[in-house]
Amino acid sequence: MSPFLSDTRVQRAIELIWYEAALLDRKDYPAWEQQFTEDGYYIVPVDPETEDFENSLNMIYDDARMRHLRVERLIQGFSPSAVAAATTVRTVSRFEVLELSDSEIVVRSAQIITAHKRNETRNLGAELTHRIRLTPDGGTDLIIQKVARLIDSQDAIGAAGFLI
């Protein structure tokens, strides 16, 4: 077992991942949107094994423009996913450092989302991979890429009414 938790770069990345989860649970979508780099991507692939997101089928493949449009739909309340949006509580744990340098870190983790909507509670599991750009002075670190691999991604999935 490596002592990776003592590395401040790893601590900063984990704190960002937890902060992102808190923003999503609070439905603070504009603040969530600001956690990404301008060239960052938010991806929910259908194929749990793919690394070629651009040429694969994805439930979500959002660059900055698409993230912004998704956030606008969620906060304006005109889309079915925004009307009576689910209340969520996320748990993110089991952190693994896949890559680490002074400028970037890639962290894989497990996420369980408990969501409640219209008198129904359900659990959704996902493996997350965050690629995070680290600032050299310890300033604001940002997400370059977030991939959420749902454990049931190949099954029929209805509208969730929340971001993963």
UniProtKB/TrEMBL annotation:
<dbReference type="InterPro" id="IPR000391">
    <property type="entry name" value="Rng_hydr_dOase-bsu"/>
</dbReference>
<dbReference type="GO" id="GO:0051213">
    <property type="term" value="F:dioxygenase activity"/>
</dbReference>
<protein>
    <submittedName>
        <fullName>Putative small subunit of phenylpropionate dioxygenase</fullName>
    </submittedName>
</protein>
<keyword id="KW-0560">Oxidoreductase</keyword>
<dbReference type="GO" id="GO:0019380">
    <property type="term" value="P:3-phenylpropionate catabolic process"/>
</dbReference>
<dbReference type="InterPro" id="IPR032710">
    <property type="entry name" value="NTF2-like_dom_sf"/>
</dbReference>
<dbReference type="Pfam" id="PF00866">
    <property type="entry name" value="Ring_hydroxyl_B"/>
</dbReference>
<comment type="similarity">
    <text>Belongs to the bacterial ring-hydroxylating dioxygenase beta subunit family.</text>
</comment>
<keyword id="KW-0223">Dioxygenase</keyword>
